[in-house]
Amino acid sequence: MRSLIQKAGFAAQVALLGIFVIGSLLGCTKTSSDNKGVTPPEAAKTEKPLVFAQGRLSPVPPEVAPKTETSAAITKKNPKDGAEMVLIPAGKFLMGDYDQSYNNPRQTVELTDYAIYKNVVTVEQYAAYCKAERKKMPKHPSFNPNWSKKDHPIVNVTWEEARAYAQWAGGDLPSEAQWERAARGTEGRKYPWGDTFDSSKLWCSKEKVGDAGGTTAVGKYGVSPAGCTDMAGNVWQWCLDWYDDKFWENKLSQVINPVNVTVTEWRARRGGSWYIPGPNDFFRCGGRLFDNPTKWDSTCGFRVVLRVLR
C-alpha cells in the first residue's frame, strides 16, 4: 500500500489526506518558454552529477552517531540576491529512518562542506531575478494576490524554474542529503527541533487539510540545529535528485556527497507544507515526496546551495 502511495507524487499527499485537489489552488502542469525542457525519463540513463564540494568516492563507514550539533550557525550573504546562507561544515550525519520504507535504512552519510540558504527563496528575491533576466513571474496563488506578500516563499515554480534561479544565484538545488543534513543536524533527530511533533514549531494546517490558508513569511518556523528555517512546513522544497524510493538502499548512495543522478519520472521534494495537517510523516526530516519536474503548485518552493569557496 505504501509503495502505491509513493508512486502517486503530489496526488499521494492528497489521497493520503482523503481529499481531491480541484482547480487552481494547487496549480497544474505547464511548459514555460523560459524553460530549457526536461530530460525525458529513460530507464538506465544517467546525467552528470552536480556535487558542490568535491570529495573522493569511498564506501560510507558503518553507522556512527556523530556529535550533537551545538555550535552557533555561521552565516554569510550571497551578493547575487542578498540571501543569508548557513555554512554547513564537512562531516558525517545520521540520515534516514528505519520506520520509513522510502528512506531506509538509517545510515551514516558523509558530506563535504557547503553553504545553504537559511530561508527558502522569497517572492521578493524571485521577482528581482525575473526582472533581471526578463522572465515572467509565475501565476500568483489566491492567498498571495499579485504577489503582495513579498516576504513569503515563492511558489508555483517548476523544478526547472527553481533550478534556473539557483544557477543564476551561483549554486544549485540541494541534494536530498544536503537538505536532510541541514534539517536534522548530525545526530539524526526526527524533526528539526527534536523527536516530538509540536505544531507550534512549524507552519501547517491544524484540524483539516488546507486550513492554514496558505504560506506565511519565511524565517519564523521550522528552525533546524544548523539555523535554517522552514525545514518542516510552510512549503515543500525541490531537491536536485531524481526520486527513487530505493536509492538509499543501494551502493550508489554509499559515497561522499551522494546524489541520485539516474533518470526517473520524478524529482524529489522535502519538508512538507502549509496544506498538510500535523502530525504527519512528511514533516519529519527524513520525510520524502516527489513530483513531475514540469509540475508547479502552491505548496512548493525551494532554497539554494553553494559550494564553499576557499
Defining traits:
5 helices, paralog of FGE (formylglycine-generating enzyme), alpha+beta, 310 residues
Descriptive report:
This protein has helices spanning 2-6, 10-17, 123-133, 159-168, 176-184, and strands at residues 75-77, 84-88, 91-95, 107-111, 114-117, 236-242, 267-270, 289-291, 300-301, 305-307. With 310 residues, it is of the alpha+beta class. It has a four-stranded antiparallel β-sheet with strand order 1-2-5-10, covered by helices on one side. Strands 8-7-6-9 form a four-stranded mixed β-sheet. A two-stranded antiparallel sheet has the order 3-4. A hairpin with a 6-residue loop joins strand 1 and strand 2 (84-88). The protein is globular. The relative contact order is 0.23.
